[in-house]
Design the sequence.
C-alpha cells in the first residue's frame, strides 16, 4: 500500500487541531439547544387546549392603523395593497405608507394607490433615503397624528407590515381581540411555500417553522421578552405612548437596524404585557423571503448587526435570568455561525481526504489523529437531534416531502449565516471606526402572483352576504344546487337572486378592482384598437384609456396570471384592469371595433 504525501498528512494533523476546540463549542451550543428542546417538549405535553379563534366574536372593532415603510418598493407595493384591501376581514383600519422624496417610482405608486383607495395615505419622509426602517416608521407615525387631528379620530392600535406581506384575513381580528389585555401582539410570520428546488428560500421555511412553532412561544413561557418580527406586530396606543415617553418621544429607535426586536425588549422592561398568537389559531403573515444567496446574506447581515451587535452595545447583558438566557441564544450566532461555516469546510475537507486515500489505495490517515472520539459521537448525536426537531417543525407546516430536504438546507444555512455574521462584524466595526451611522440594508422583495393570492381572498358568497346582496340561507341553497362547472356568481344571476350589477360590485370588492359601466362615446377608438381583435375576443379585454404610463383595460373576467402574460407580449405599459358586466363589454366591442 502506498503512502500519503507529506503535505496531506500534515493537513490532517492541522485539521484535527481545529476539530477539538470546534467540537467543544458545538457541544456547548448543542446542549443549549437540547435543553430548550426538552423544555419545549415538556410544555407541549402539558399544554392546555388551544383557544377557540372565535371565542370573542362580539368585541367591538378598534381603529387600526397599518404602517408600511418603503424604500424602492414600487414593483410590489401596488400588489400588496390591492390584495390586502380585498382580503382583510375587518372594517375599521387605514393604511399609512411611508416613502422618501428621492424615491420617485415608489412615491408615484403610492400616490396612485392613494387616489384609488380612500383607506391609503402617503407619508413622505422630510429627508432623502434610505435612513433606517425605524426612521421611516417614525414619520409614518407623525402622518397618522395629522390624520387624527384632521378627522377628529384616534387609532387604538398600530400594526407594522412590509411591502411584500400577505396579511392574513383574520389577523386584525386576532390583534383586536388581544389588544384589551396586551400592549404588543405578535402574529406568526411564515414564508410562503416554494418548490424544493428553491433551496435558499427553503432555508427560511425551515428556520421560521422552528422559530414560530417553538422559539417564539417559549420566550414568553420562560418569562423573557417577545421580540417583534417587524411584520404582523400590533401595538396599542398606550404601549406606543410608553415607548415615546421613555425615549425622547421616539416610538421607533431610528439608529437601530432591528427596531422591531428592540421594541419587544423595551416594552418588556416597561412592564407592558406581550403575547404571541399561537400558530394553532390559523393566522399568519405570509411572504416570499430572499431566494438568492446574495439577497439572503444581505438580509441576515442586517439581522445579525441589529439583534446581536447593536442590542449588545445598547443593553449589554442586563436583565433577569430568562432575559439573559435569550440574549445568549440571540447572540451566540456571532461565534456559532462562522464556526458552523468552518465546520462545513472541515467536513468537506474530510470527504476530500477520504476520496484521495481511496483513489490512491492508501490508508485514510485522518482518523488516526482523533484525540477524543467520544466528543465526535456526542456532537454528532446532538446534531441529529437538532435536525430531527427541525424536520418535525418543517413537516408540520410544509409537509413531509418538503422536510426531507432539511439536512441539505441545514448545510446551506450554515454557509449563509456564517457569511452574514462575518459581514455584520466587518460592517459594524467599520461604521464604529469611521463614526458613521448604520443604514437600512435594502432587501429585494417579490410579491405572489394573482393565482397564488387566490386562497387568501374572501369568498364571493361571503361578500354577497356581508354586503346585503343576498341572505345567508339563499347562498346556502344556491351552493347546494350549483351545477358543476358553473361559477357561483353566474349561477346566482341566472336564478335571478342578484343582478349583474350586484355581482360585479361584489367582484370589485373581492378583487380590489374598480368596476362600473363604460360609455363607448367616452373611449377613443384608436386606444380601443391597440390590441389585436383576436386577443380582445380570446381574453375578453378591451383597452379604453392610457394614462400615467398605464394601459387601462375593461373586462368582464377577473384577470389571471395567464391573461397578464399574454397581454404583456403586446405592450410595455403597466396593465390596469376595470371590471365591466358582460353586456357592457359586448356593447363596447361592437361599437368600437
Sequence:
Amino acid at each position: 500500500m502506498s503512502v500519503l504525501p507529506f503535505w496531506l498528512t500534515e493537513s490532517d494533523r492541522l485539521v484535527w487541531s481545529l476539530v477539538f476546540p470546534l467540537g467543544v463549542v458545538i457541544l456547548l451550543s448543542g446542549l443549549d439547544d437540547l435543553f430548550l428542546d426538552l423544555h419545549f417538549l415538556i410544555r407541549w405535553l402539558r399544554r392546555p387546549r388551544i383557544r377557540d379563534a372565535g371565542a370573542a366574536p362580539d368585541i367591538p372593532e378598534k381603529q387600526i392603523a397599518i404602517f408600511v415603510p418603503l424604500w424602492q418598493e414600487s414593483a410590489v407595493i401596488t400588489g400588496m395593497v390591492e390584495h390586502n384591501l380585498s382580503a382583510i376581514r375587518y372594517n375599521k383600519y387605514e393604511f399609512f405608507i411611508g416613502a422618501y422624496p428621492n424615491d420617485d417610482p415608489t412615491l408615484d405608486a403610492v400616490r396612485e394607490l392613494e387616489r384609488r383607495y380612500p383607506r391609503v395615505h402617503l407619508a413622505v419622509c422630510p429627508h432623502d433615503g434610505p435612513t433606517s426602517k425605524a426612521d421611516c416608521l417614525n414619520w409614518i407615525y407623525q402622518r397618522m397624528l395629522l390624520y387624527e387631528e384632521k378627522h377628529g379620530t384616534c387609532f387604538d392600535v398600530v400594526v407594522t407590515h412590509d411591502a411584500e406581506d400577505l396579511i392574513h384575513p383574520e389577523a386584525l381580528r386576532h390583534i383586536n381581540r388581544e389588544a384589551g389585555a396586551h400592549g404588543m401582539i405578535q402574529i406568526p410570520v411564515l414564508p410562503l411555500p416554494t418548490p424544493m428546488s428553491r433551496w435558499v428560500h427553503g432555508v427560511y421555511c425551515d428556520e421560521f417553522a422552528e422559530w414560530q412553532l417553538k422559539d417564539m412561544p417559549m420566550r414568553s413561557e420562560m418569562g423573557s421578552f417577545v421580540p417583534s418580527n417587524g411584520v404582523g406586530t400590533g401595538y396599542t396606543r398606550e404601549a406606543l405612548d410608553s415607548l415615546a415617553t421613555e425615549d425622547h418621544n421616539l416610538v421607533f429607535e431610528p439608529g437601530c437596524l432591528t427596531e422591531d426586536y428592540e421594541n419587544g425588549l423595551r416594552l418588556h422592561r416597561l412592564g407592558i404585557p406581550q403575547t404571541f398568537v399561537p400558530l394553532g389559531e390559523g393566522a399568519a403573515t405570509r411572504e416570499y423571503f430572499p431566494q438568492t444567496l446574495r439577497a439572503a446574506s444581505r438580509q441576515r447581515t442586517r439581522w445579525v448587526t441589529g439583534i446581536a451587535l447593536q442590542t449588545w452595545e445598547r443593553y449589554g447583558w442586563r436583565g433577569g435570568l430568562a432575559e439573559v438566557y435569550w440574549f445568549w441564544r440571540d447572540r451566540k450566532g456571532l461565534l456559532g455561525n462562522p464556526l458552523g461555516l468552518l465546520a462545513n469546510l472541515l467536513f468537506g475537507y474530510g470527504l476530500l481526504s477520504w476520496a484521495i486515500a481511496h483513489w490512491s489505495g492508501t490508508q485514510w490517515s485522518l482518523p488516526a489523529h482523533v484525540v477524543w472520539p467520544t466528543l465526535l459521537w456526542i456532537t454528532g448525536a446532538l446534531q441529529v437531534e437538532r435536525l430531527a426537531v427541525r424536520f418535525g417543525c418543517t413537516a408540520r407546516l410544509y409537509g413531509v416531502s418538503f422536510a426531507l430536504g432539511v439536512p441539505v438546507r441545514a448545510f446551506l444555512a450554515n454557509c449563509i449565516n456564517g457569511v452574514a455574521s462575518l459581514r455584520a462584524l466587518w460592517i459594524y466595526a467599520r461604521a464604529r471606526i469611521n463614526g458613521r451611522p448604520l443604514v437600512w440594508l435594502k432587501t429585494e422583495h417579490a410579491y405572489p402572483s394573482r393565482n397564488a393570492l387566490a386562497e387568501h381572498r374572501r369568498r364571493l358568497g361571503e361578500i354577497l352576504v356581508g354586503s346585503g346582496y343576498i341572505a345567508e340561507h339563499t347562498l346556502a341553497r344556491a351552493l347546494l344546487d350549483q351545477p358543476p362547472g358553473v361559477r357561483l356568481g353566474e349561477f346566482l344571476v341566472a336564478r335571478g337572486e342578484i343582478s349583474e350589477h350586484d355581482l360585479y360590485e361584489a367582484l370589485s370588492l373581492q378583487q380590489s378592482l374598480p368596476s362600473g359601466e363604460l360609455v363607448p362615446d367616452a373611449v377613443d377608438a384608436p386606444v380601443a384598437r391597440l390590441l389585436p381583435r383576436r386577443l380582445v375576443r380570446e381574453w375578453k379585454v378591451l383597452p379604453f384609456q392610457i394614462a400615467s404610463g398605464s394601459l387601462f383595460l375593461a373586462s368582464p373576467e377577473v384577470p389571471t396570471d395567464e391573461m397578464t402574460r399574454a397581454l404583456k407580449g403586446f405592450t410595455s405599459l403597466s396593465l390596469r384592469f376595470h371590471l365591466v358586466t358582460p353586456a357592457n363589454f359586448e356593447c363596447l366591442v361592437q361599437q368600437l371595433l
Summary: The two ends are 86 Å apart (CA to CA). The longest helix spans residues 6-45. The chain is about 55% helix and 10% strand. The longest strand covers residues 93-99.
